Amino acid sequence: MRDVWYTGTKRLTASQRARLTASGLSVHHVPLIETRLTYNQMPISRFDWLVVTSQTAVPALRDVPRDVKVAAVGEKTKQALETVGFTVALMPETFTGEALFHDLATVVKADEVVLFARGDLANTAHMTQLENIYDWVVYETIGRELTETEVEALEGIEALLVLSPSAVRALTPYLDHFHGTWYAIGEVTERAVREVSTLPVRVPECYTMDALIQCIGEDFS
C-alpha cells in the first residue's frame, strides 16, 4: 500500500475511500484548513441573482429568498443549493469562478442586481464584469500548522490531494519534505501548486472529487 494524503475539510465517502484502497493506496485524511461562518448580514435585501462559488457558503444562505436566480460554480455546489430549496439557473461547463462569471455576464440584464456570497479568500477580480454586484463574505478560511509527526510522515507520502489554493498555502512551509505528485482538483488550485513547487501536478478533466479520485486511481493501479 502506498501512502497518500487527502487534505480536504470533509471526509471522503465510503465509496471514494474504497476506490482509492482498491488502487493500492492507503489514504490518510489530513485536513489543512477549516472554515467558519462570519454571520455577516446581507449587504442588500433585494436582488435578482445569487452567485455561489463554494458549497461551504450554503449554510450561510438560510435567510436568502428562494425565488432568486442562482448561479453555482459546479455540480457539488449545485446539489448543496438544491438540497436547501434553491433552483440553480446557471452552472458553467468548466467548474471555475472565472467561467461562472463569464457566463453570468452574458445573461444578467443591465437593471438586474447580483449578490456574490463567498469566502474571504475567493477571487473577486471577476466581479468587475458586472455592473450591479454586491459582495457578501459569508465564511472565513483558517489554515493550520502540521505537527512534527505529520512533517515526518510527509517524507513518505507519494501523493497529495489538494482541493484549494488555501490548502496549498498551508503546505508551503513543508515542501522540502514532500517528493511525490500533486493531485489538484482544478486549474485554480493547479496554478497555486505551480507557484510553489516544481513537482508533477495532475488535474482531472472534470473538476470534481470523483474525477480526481479516478485520476489518481488510474495512475497508481
UniProtKB/TrEMBL annotation:
It catalyses: hydroxymethylbilane = uroporphyrinogen III + H2O. Residues 18-214 form the Tetrapyrrole biosynthesis uroporphyrinogen III synthase domain. GO terms for molecular function: uroporphyrinogen-III synthase activity. Its EC number is 4.2.1.75. Pathway: Porphyrin-containing compound metabolism; protoporphyrin-IX biosynthesis; coproporphyrinogen-III from 5-aminolevulinate: step 3/4. CDD domains: HemD. Keywords: Lyase, Porphyrin biosynthesis. InterPro entries: 4pyrrol_syn_uPrphyn_synt_sf (IPR036108), 4pyrrol_synth_uPrphyn_synth (IPR003754), UROS/Hem4 (IPR039793). The keyword Lyase applies. GO terms for biological process: protoporphyrinogen IX biosynthetic process; uroporphyrinogen III biosynthetic process. It comes from the Bacteria. Catalyzes cyclization of the linear tetrapyrrole, hydroxymethylbilane, to the macrocyclic uroporphyrinogen III. PANTHER family: UROPORPHYRINOGEN-III SYNTHASE, CHLOROPLASTIC. Belongs to the uroporphyrinogen-III synthase family. This is Uroporphyrinogen-III synthase. It comes from Exiguobacterium chiriqhucha RW-2.
